[in-house]
Amino acid sequence: MTVLVTGGAGFIGSHFVLRHVAQNPDDTLIVLDTLTYAADKSFLDPVIQRIRFIEGDIADVEILEQIASRYGIDTIVNFAAETHVDRSIKNIVPFIHSNILGVQALVELLKRHPEILLLHVSTDEVYGDLKDSDAPFDLQSPLNPSSPYSATKAAGDLLLRASARTFGIRARITRCTNNYGPHQDTSKLLPVIITSALAGKKIPIYGEGKQKRDWLYVTDHTDAIEKVLTDGEDGKIYLVSADDERANIDVAMTVLDVLGKSHDLISFVEDRPGHDWRYALDNSSVRKLGWKPAVSFAKGVEETVAWFRRKSTAR
Ligand SMILES: NC(=O)c1ccc[n+]([C@@H]2O[C@H](COP(=O)([O-])OP(=O)(O)OC[C@H]3O[C@@H](n4cnc5c(N)ncnc54)[C@H](O)[C@@H]3O)[C@@H](O)[C@H]2O)c1
Known about the structure:
By secondary structure, this protein is α/β, with parallel strands linked by helices. It has one domain: Rossmann fold (3-Layer(aba) Sandwich), CATH 3.40.50.720. The chain has helices spanning 11-23, 61-71, 85-90, 93-112, 148-167, 189-198, 218-231, 248-259, 284-287, 297-314; strands spanning 2-6, 28-33, 52-55, 75-78, 117-123, 170-176, 178-180, 203-206, 212-217, 237-240, 245-247, 266-269. Strand 5 (117-123), helix 5 and strand 6 (170-176) form a beta-alpha-beta unit. It is globular and about 55 Å long. Bound molecules: nicotinamide-adenine-dinucleotide (NAD). Nicotinamide-adenine-dinucleotide is lined by residues 6-7, 9-13, 32-36, 38-39, 57-59, 79-83, 98, 102, 121, 123, 153, 176, 178-179, 185.
């Protein structure tokens, strides 16, 4: 198989690349990434001799076409996106570019190459948020995004679904909950908690920290994507979650306990405008494929803290 991984130098994409190369040594793997602030090409160092890395934009159909004609792509896994909600509140333009026009460019490529399968990685945030008493979102839940970021992700998903129906292109969508693990950009919640705590600095927590997220260890997510690639069906959507809901404040306290630091480091700051209250997904669509999460929150936090600790002492 020849697999194009877009956004493969970012957080989740880099884990997918490392694991896929280890588990499928005969595949040819190409990474396309514009190397934004969230990317770090050195994440791919362990496999860089075994993959092809191309710096470029998914919204550029000509680059996509050159890659497809040169390498004969079987599958595209699209991780490329602008992903930070706070940045989308400040400036939506890059989000429209990567998350909507980028998906549109992939659709154009697939119209020319209908044999290529696209797995598009999306988010639970397209559904908006839940009250504490609500059942988790499922495949029947309407899209109801509440941030500029999630609106662009929902637009990308809709474009893809409409194009699958109109043009018969091959696409599968996965939507997942909050990922955590090594390689995540330091502006995201868990890295902020860990890096602040390691530096002995105050940890900023929005509002009262009672917002709940379902925490999914990054390699459990990439394993679910592999399952959808091998056993999923074209045109279907798969919801990936670990069934492990935790309030942000509890996550901060767990990290502080792992590091042996005082809970007094937690500092409540003004809430994000439009901040979603709770996310949770019904993951039966991926469980039916035989996937289940393998990494407990305690183990995942330990691994993540250890990685950020090594990173801070390597400087
Ligand atoms: N991190 C999470 O908790 C989470 C949760 C749900 C869904 N997702 C989705 O998973 C995917 C990957 O998320 P992540 O956390 O790894 O993001 P990330 O921000 O860490 O990485 C995104 C990568 O995409 C690249 N990129 C951005 N725009 C590009 C473009 N136009 N062309 C080529 N490359 C481009 C960046 O350089 C970066 O390497 C995204 O689609 C995101 O919406 C993430």
